[in-house]
């Protein structure tokens, strides 16, 4: 498969750091559950379907990780843990009541945090993108995933760790995040100049 961070017309498919910040700022003005979905997508690089499948019992506040079930794998039981910030954990607690769900004797911990269909989640993300002024082929949940990958490499995260966080089977798939241009490429190159 020919993976690329650019569409056939040469437009990028990832959000820049400034667009990611604008996206979260716009999400803060939305319903709290829309904000937390946007925050999870931006801060973990997960797929929209993986976020929407998330339940309280897959958020480990002790280790500061979210455990995603890899829905793209052809077999069941494939999971990956992605470290998350204390801010994200506290927002998930504030909006969704993680501790209450995790302590519920009636199986509340296995209830999805966002009981939406994929199209509803997609619409929510597109609405926030529009408010943020982000338009184009990158104004999607996948654009956030790609933006996460670019940002991770830009900040020096080892590619093998990024591969694990994104749930890629092959390192060659993760390597596309090094295929950036413009400001991102210059920031990466600047590390060589110092």
From TrEMBL:
It comes from the Bacteria. SUPFAM superfamilies: DNA breaking-rejoining enzymes. One of its GO terms (cellular component) is cytoplasm. InterPro entries: DNA_brk_join_enz, Integrase-like_cat_sf, Integrase_catalytic, Tyrosine_recombinase_XerCD. GO terms for biological process: DNA integration; DNA recombination. The keyword Transmembrane helix does not apply. Residues 10-190 form the Tyr recombinase domain. It is found in: Cytoplasm. The keyword Chloroplast does not apply. Gene3D superfamilies: Intergrase catalytic core. One of its GO terms (molecular function) is DNA binding. This is Integrase. It comes from Oceanibaculum pacificum. The lineage of its organism: Bacteria, Pseudomonadati, Pseudomonadota, Alphaproteobacteria, Rhodospirillales.
């Amino acid at each position: 498969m020919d993976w690329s961070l650019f569409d056939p017309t040469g437009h990028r498919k990832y959000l820049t750091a400034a667009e990611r910040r604008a996206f979260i700022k716009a999400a803060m003005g939305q319903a709290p559950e829309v904000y937390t979905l946007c925050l999870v997508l931006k801060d973990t690089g997960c797929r929209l379907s993986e976020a929407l499948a998330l339940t309280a019992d897959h958020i480990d506040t002790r280790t500061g990780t979210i455990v995603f079930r890899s829905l793209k794998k052809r077999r069941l039981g494939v999971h990956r843990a992605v470290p998350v910030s204390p801010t994200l954990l506290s927002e998930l607690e504030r909006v969704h009541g993680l501790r209450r769900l995790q302590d519920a004797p009636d199986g509340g911990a296995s209830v999805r945090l966002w009981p939406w269909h994929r199209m509803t989640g997609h619409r929510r993300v597109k609405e926030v993108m529009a408010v943020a002024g982000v338009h184009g082929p990158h104004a999607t949940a996948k654009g956030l995933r790609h933006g996460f990958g670019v940002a991770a490499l830009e900040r020096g995260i080892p590619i093998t760790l990024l591969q694990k966080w994104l749930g890629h089977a092959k390192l060659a798939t993760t390597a596309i995040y090094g295929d950036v241009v413009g400001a991102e490429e210059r920031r990466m190159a600047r590390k060589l100049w110092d």
